[in-house]
Design brief:
By secondary structure, this protein is mainly β. The protein contains three helices and eleven strands. This is DUF3558 domain-containing protein.
């Protein structure tokens, strides 16, 4: 099964006042940012990353250990890597169901903000839920039924990862459980941004 990932970014420069908001059923309270840009600067929609990590130079299939991949229910030896000029991606097959893959994309070398374009496109998604993963701003934004999840996580202000999970058309109580756990593993594995 071929995975299709959406990972896009937008230019940002300004940060603004924050308030705390809780999204029902999704993670802990997250900061929401109201755009109040300085003159001539584009608005910043997503909150800044307080403890940025660095994915530069890390191949996408190496962001998780084999043990972590197995713990998530996937087969390490099924990794399929793809790299283009702006993103790197990797996908794994399920240990129990070939039609139940997971995939991720990383943008680690960008002048663009990790979550702003997802915020800018929020009206195009059936589901748009700001949240946090491992203390980092994240957004669930997708048109998937209750059997899949597309989760976008800011690694740093200008580095991001998207994780898409398709549960083989079977409803799940929490279709974002695997992407959240995978994102937390990745954030813990990456070195701090210096």
């Amino acid at each position: 099964m071929k995975l299709v990932w959406l990972l896009t970014f937008s230019i940002v420069l300004a940060t603004t006042g924050c308030s705390s908001a809780t999204v029902p059923g999704v993670g802990a309270p997250v900061e929401s940012v109201s755009p109040v840009p300085a003159q001539g600067e584009p608005p910043r929609w997503a909150p800044s990353v307080r403890s940025p990590r660095d994915a530069r130079g890390v191949p996408p299939c190496d962001v998780l250990s084999e043990e972590q991949i197995r713990e998530l229910g996937f087969l390490p030896d099924t990794a399929v890597e793809s790299i283009n000029s702006t993103t790197q991606s990797c996908g794994w097959s399920s240990a129990t169901d070939d039609t139940n893959p997971v995939g991720l994309e990383i943008n680690s070398d960008s002048n663009l903000a990790a979550l702003d374009i997802v915020h800018n496109l929020r009206e195009t998604f059936a589901r748009f839920e700001p949240t946090e993963v491992g203390g980092h701003p994240a957004i669930r934004a997708d048109d998937l039924p209750d059997n899949g999840c597309a989760l976008y996580i800011a690694i740093a202000d200008h580095q991001g990862i998207s994780i898409e999970y398709n549960a083989a058309n079977r409803p799940l109580p929490d279709p974002c459980e695997i992407p959240r756990r995978m994102g937390a593993f990745i954030l813990a594995n990456l070195p701090p941004l210096t």
